[in-house]
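User: Please fill in residues for this 97-position structure.
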């Protein structure tokens, strides 16, 4: 068995010192993750977004209005309409919510 022990020691790392063992323990404690953090779903909480006023909406471009309605309120607007009709549709959908 002496031959195999020499081969094993040649291919393995040198034995750890006491300081290395303490550091490894401290590292394992610092990196340890609570199981609840893994198993619980991550939920994004959205704050209630207050809609802009009519004058603020009229100052926006049609594209900006479309992006604002989609991103902030989840409302799809038809970009082929005029800006006034888009604002009316936005307010109508906002009231439904």
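Assistant: Residues filled in for all 97 positions:
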């Amino acid at each position: 068995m002496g031959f195999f022990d020499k081969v094993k020691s040649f291919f393995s790392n040198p034995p750890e010192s006491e300081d290395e063992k303490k550091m490894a323990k401290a590292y394992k404690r610092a990196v340890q993750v609570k199981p609840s953090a893994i198993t619980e779903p991550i939920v994004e909480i959205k704050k209630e977004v207050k809609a802009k006023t009519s004058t603020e909406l009229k100052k926006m471009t049609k594209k900006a209005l479309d992006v604002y309605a989609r991103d902030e309120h989840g409302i799809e607007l038809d970009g082929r309409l005029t800006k006034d009709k888009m604002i009316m549709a936005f307010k109508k959908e906002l009231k439904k919510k």
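For context: DSSP finds six helices and no strands in the chain.
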